[in-house]
Design brief:
Shape of chain A: globular
Number of domains of chain B: 1
Structural class of chain B: alpha/beta
CATH topology of chain B: Rossmann fold
CATH class of chain A: Mainly Alpha
Number of strands of chain A: 0
Radius of gyration of chain B: 19 Å
Oligomer: heterodimer
Largest sheet of chain A: none
CATH topology of chain A: ABC transporter involved in vitamin B12 uptake, BtuC
Distance between the termini of chain A: 25 Å
Number of helices of chain A: 15
Structural class of chain A: mainly alpha
Helix content of chain A: over 70%
Shape of chain B: globular
Order of helices and strands of chain A: HHHHHHHHHHHHHHH
Strand order of the largest sheet of chain B: 6-7-8-3-9-10
CATH superfamily of chain B: P-loop containing nucleotide triphosphate hydrolases
CATH superfamily of chain A: ABC transporter involved in vitamin B12 uptake, BtuC
Order of helices and strands of chain B: EEEHEEHEHHHHEHEHEEHHEE
Number of domains of chain A: 1
Strand content of chain A: under 5%
Helix content of chain B: 25-40%
CATH architecture of chain B: 3-Layer(aba) Sandwich
Largest sheet of chain B: 6 strands, mixed
Chain lengths: 341, 265
């Protein structure tokens, strides 16, 4: 199959698999909702067809528990994958992801701080909002430190990201030790990544932010392609390299921060989805970004489904599930890359 | 809009610093439309720095660069990208990027971030691939190319930019002799179309045979400039490289054959 055929095939498969996964994930759980009834309920809510055939309990499960959670999973996964594709172009490294911006570590620090200070019990959405603030603060610290005293190099930015992440993690550990035991459990659940108990509000706030950022990044796809040629050539083609890079990184931090603040740590999605799709749809951002979004969404919807159905007694941590898939993939890709070069 | 001198690109008293170190000083240089200018000089003399300063990528620490009579600083970024193309000695595009897609990004200064590519863009890309003889590689990922093919890809990108000035930093560095001859033929075609072409080159005889004028950069200054055979025959050139240069006229050849030896110490 030729290149454009492969690309069309990839989009067709992803375009069919994602709705199927969304449907399956909405139907499956401790209570199975028959697919026909589920679709009829959605149609009825949209004003098409008769009243929903689902019983009241089924309606509640579908509309207050499953649907927001499933769509949130899709947006978190899609957002993280688009961020990964963006950072891989900006850092000119096919294995970059949001961890480089200090976003994950910053979000964790913000979340632990909110728990330690007791805000979580008093304030609505205190945990995700603090996590979001922590994520943005960490990303901001990375920019400021990397760019302090002149033009920050991409290499300097990478190492600064590592240093800021370590610092934030150190703060998290100290706070965790100093936090009462009954509160630690809340934040541990969040740190491990998961969507248990997330509802429409999380979707409206976090999901909307993720979606806005993803659309903006997709619109700027050509800038990513020019940046991926390297600093000198991008500048020679008339791109204001530093301002562009800063703007793109800020958008990436916003998306990653929003996704992390509602779902906790969901590792490897941002690395895996674009890395795997680059071979199928090519490295041009106008193809890679949308394809990564679909693949990331699919991955996290399925991972979240697995997290709530694999064990009958409890939700498995979502972040652990993506890591179980992602870490071997990463190692495999690393070996394959070495074998090629 | 043309300068009194009529130069497309002109440096006057140009000084360039890398960090705190002054790398170039007092450089006067002019490139005319349709001219082939070779920049030669020993390693570390400041040739690459000169090319980047002329392209507006490094700021002048003293003096100025004028493009079509206007200081570089007065040009907007994309207008500069349409007027002037720089082809560096290394190709840095991502390995997975296809040759054609990489060359098409040379159209960025013409379309910016949002306007879709047009027929004009596709024509320019097709012509550039054709001229550099890499049309058969158009869908190949950069990572699968040889160093020479990568360099021709970088040149094709510069041509797709359709600039009025083409600056090249060691464009022949990775090319075999056949590809070198092709490169200089392509540069000649471009020059004949009215583009001012400036190339940094290490192969003195080949640069001399191609160029209409040669600039010798040594120790951060212009040590000599003029017709290539005069520059090569001059003392400044021999001293700059610590060599002796002998030119042997050969009946039927436009240029002497050169023989180089290490200077006796």
């Amino acid at each position: 199959m030729n290149e454009s055929g492969r690309r069309r095939m990839a989009f067709a498969v992803l375009g069919l698999a994602l709705p199927a996964a969304l449907l399956l994930a909405s139907a499956a759980g401790t209570v199975w909702l028959p697919l026909g009834d589920l679709l009829a309920s959605v149609a009825s809510a949209a004003g098409i067809g008769a009243a929903s055939p689902l019983a009241t309990a089924g309606e509640t499960i579908l509309w207050t528990v499953r649907l927001p959670r499933v769509f949130l999973a899709a947006l978190v996964g899609g957002g993280l994958a688009v961020v990964g594709a963006t950072l891989q172009a900006v850092f000119r490294n096919p294995m970059a992801d949001a961890g480089l911006l200090g976003v994950g570590a910053g979000a964790a620090l913000g979340a632990v701080l909110a728990v330690r200070l007791g805000w979580v019990t008093d304030l609505f959405l205190a945990l995700p909002l603090s996590a979001f603030a922590g994520a943005l603060a960490a990303a901001l610290a990375v920019y400021v430190l990397a760019y302090a005293g002149g033009r920050g190099s991409i290499h300097g930015l990478l190492l600064t990201g590592l240093a800021v992440s370590s610092l934030a993690s150190a703060g998290t550990s100290v706070l965790l030790v100093a936090t009462e035991e009954f509160r630690v459990k809340t934040v541990l659940f969040w740190l491990a990544g998961g969507l248990e108990g997330r509802g429409w509000t999380h979707l409206r706030v976090g999901g909307a932010l993720v979606l806005a950022g993803v659309v903006a990044l997709a619109a700027l796809a050509r800038l990513l392609d020019v940046l991926s040629l390297g600093e000198e050539e991008a500048a020679a083609l008339g791109l204001p390299v530093h301002a562009t890079r800063l703007g793109l990184l800020a958008l990436a931090a916003l998306v990653a921060g929003a996704a992390t603040s509602v779902a906790g740590s969901v590792p490897f999605v941002g690395l895996m989805a674009p890395h795997a799709l680059r071979r199928l749809v090519g490295p041009l951002s106008r193809h890679l970004l949308p394809a990564s979004f679909l693949a990331g969404a699919l991955l996290v919807v399925l991972a979240d489904l697995a997290s709530r159905t694999l064990s009958p007694s409890m939700d498995l941590p979502l972040g652990a599930l993506t890591a179980f898939v992602g870490a071997p993939y990463f190692l495999f890709a690393l070996r394959a890359g070495e074998a090629r070069s | 809009m043309s300068a009194p001198s009529g130069a497309l690109l002109e440096a006057r008293g140009l000084a360039v610093a890398r960090g705190r170190r002054i790398v170039l000083e007092g450089v006067d240089l002019a490139l005319m439309a349709g001219e082939a200018l070779a920049v030669v000089g020993p390693n570390g003399a400041g040739k690459s720095t000169l090319v980047r300063a002329l392209a507006g990528l490094l700021p002048a620490a003293g003096g100025e660069v004028r493009l079509e009579g206007r200081p570089l600083a007065a040009w907007t970024r994309d207008a500069l990208g349409r007027a002037l193309a720089l082809v560096a000695s290394e190709e840095h595009g991502p390995d997975a990027l296809a040759v054609e897609d990489r060359v098409r990004l040379g159209r960025y200064p013409h379309r910016g971030p949002f306007r879709p590519w047009t027929r004009d863009d596709e024509d320019a890309v097709g012509r550039a691939l054709d001229q550099t003889g890499i049309t058969h590689l158009r869908r190949r990922p950069l990572g699968t190319l040889s160093a020479g093919e990568r360099q021709l890809t970088a040149l094709a990108r510069g041509l797709a930019q359709q600039p009025r000035i083409l600056l090249l930093d060691e464009p022949a560095a990775h090319l075999d002799i056949g590809h070198q001859l092709r490169l200089f033929r392509v540069l000649d075609e471009v020059r004949a179309g009215g583009v001012g072409v400036l190339a940094v080159a290490h192969d003195l005889p080949r640069a001399g045979a191609w160029a209409s004028r040669m600039v010798l950069v040594a120790g951060g200054r212009v040590a000599a400039q003029g017709p290539p055979d005069d520059v090569l025959a001059g003392r400044a050139c021999a001293e700059a490289f610590h060599i002796t240069i002998r030119g042997h006229p050969v009946a039927g050849l436009a240029h002497p054959l050169y023989w180089f030896e290490e200077a006796p110490t």
